[in-house]
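queue> holo job accepted (zinc ion)
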Amino acid sequence: MKKHKFVQFMKKYGYYCLAGVLVLAIGLTLAFTAGRSTEETLDISSAKNPVVSVSGEAEPLTFTLPMENAELVNAYAGDGMYWNKTLAWWEAHNGVDITSDNLDVMAIADGTVAEIDTDMFYGTVVTIEHADGLTSVYASLDETLSVKKGDAVKKGTVIGKAAVTMGNEAEEGAHLHLEMYENGEHIDPANYLDFENK
Ligand SMILES: [Zn+2]
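queue> job finished
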């Protein structure tokens, strides 16, 4: 009798049981997939290199030297071991000094002109924001620039000319003082720019 009752029950409610199991399975799959895709999204946003392009594909940021035949005159010295001959004292050098026969200064990578400033210490300064939390700052530029705030620039876009506008480093002559920041912290531009192989 018990078996007979079970068969009757399954005949009557079997489809509901099956449907219930299916709904549960689909629900679990969706929850699992949603959880995974959230993790993947977080991974992408915190990843250091991939830049999501318009097409949605990851494109790594690439760099060029900011001047043709760039000559590195003074290296980065975050430790304070830089002799500033203009001010005649040792100090930290938070960037690199570069010169060339061709004074045109180029953006080192794709980005957006975030700021343009002029002061007596750094001269005319262009700040470009890039992907990956990177920022490049071009000081000692001539006040006549080829870009304005908000412009999108490509790697190699000429932004202005190196000059002698930086009071702190006037003794260096016409040169570019280039600084780089990674997530708000000064870094050595030589980490990204290859001065050995031009
Ligand atoms: Zn400098």
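queue> The longest strand covers residues 111-119.
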